[in-house]
Amino acid sequence: MEINGTVIEDTFSEAFTGRCVRATITARDMETVRRAAYDSTATPGAVIGRVEGGVESFHSADETPDGRPGATVQFYYALPDLEKFQVELSYRIRQDILVKPFTALYDSTPDPEGYMDMMKHVGHCGDGYEWIEEFGGREMINIPIAVPDFKIESKLGYRDAIMGANFWYMCRDPETVLEAGRAAINAIGEVEGVVTPFDICSAASKPETNYPWIGPTTNHPYCPSLRDLLGDESRVPEGVGYIPEIVINGLSLEALEEAMRAGIEAVCRYDGVLMVSAGNYDGKLGDHRIDLHGVL
């Protein structure tokens, strides 16, 4: 298959089930919202047993629970330990949202399978001076801080979701890496219910490693700088000098497929994109399979 002269490899992306908390950050101004949203979702950590996240969308004041500018963010955890997820999530909330002036955090998880109580790991930042209040039909924890005050909904919903869907766009030149990648990120950003936790990712990984304490290491057959060293083991096509990756997490398989389609179609508008492929491990790693030809 080809789109605008770009070859779409007949392969698939693996993805796996994780848990997701979806929430809405608000603040007095959009600059603070953006800083809180991007800071709290930075450092994708699923492959090292930590939380990863992404910004789904930004909102005007008439679209949020408290009539202020806002952002919807998603936080994912790949392991089944719900208590560990709560602890990891609390670090993101406490260190990246609570500390920003005039912020609040509201639950926005659709069809939650359960709820995390925010008092133990976030609310008690008030050192016993925190209190519960009702706002717009929501039970909020008010945490007194020096710039009064941080408010967080007392329970945040969580649900099963899908992590790690991906595609690679193989580029001829560095300009295309950034231009096509940003076009893909923007196109995917129009799809409700998905996030791109790595933005444009320059380091595809593999589960096998010579150094287990590091975790996933470089996917060496796809490193252009190793083409001559690896010889026949190299999987880098002729003319390709760069193989960036877009990773997508989403609330449903349908949303992920729509996002994959939007992202792939976006990169195929660039002459410097020679081929589109995807990362998979022969179906051994993920619960879900997304065929590239099937979504286009």
What does this structure look like?
The chain is of the alpha+beta class and 296 residues long. It contains six helices and 17 strands. The protein has helices at residues 30-40, 82-96, 174-188, 227-230, 253-267, 292-295, and strands at residues 2-3, 6-8, 12-26, 52-59, 70-77, 104-107, 114-117, 131-135, 138-143, 150-153, 155-171, 194-195, 205-206, 217-218, 245-250, 273-277, 288-291. It has a 15-stranded mixed β-sheet that branches. β8 and β9 (138-143) form a beta hairpin. The radius of gyration is 20 Å and the shape is elongated. The mean pLDDT is 96.
Helix content: 10-25%
Largest sheet: 15 strands, mixed
* Annotated CATH topology of the largest domain: Alpha-Beta Plaits
Q: What CATH architecture of the largest domain do you see?
A: 2-Layer Sandwich
Helix/sheet category: alpha+beta
* Model regions low in confidence, pLDDT < 50 over at least 5 residues: none
- The whole-angstrom Rg is 20 Å
Number of separate helices? 6
Strand share of the residues? 25-35%
Distance between the termini: 10 Å
CA-based shape? elongated
Number of strands: 17
- The average pLDDT score comes to 96
User: How many domains, as an integer?
Assistant: 2
Question: What is the CATH class designation of the largest domain?
Answer: Alpha Beta
Return the string of H and E elements. Answer: EEEHEEHEEEEEEHEEEHEHEEH
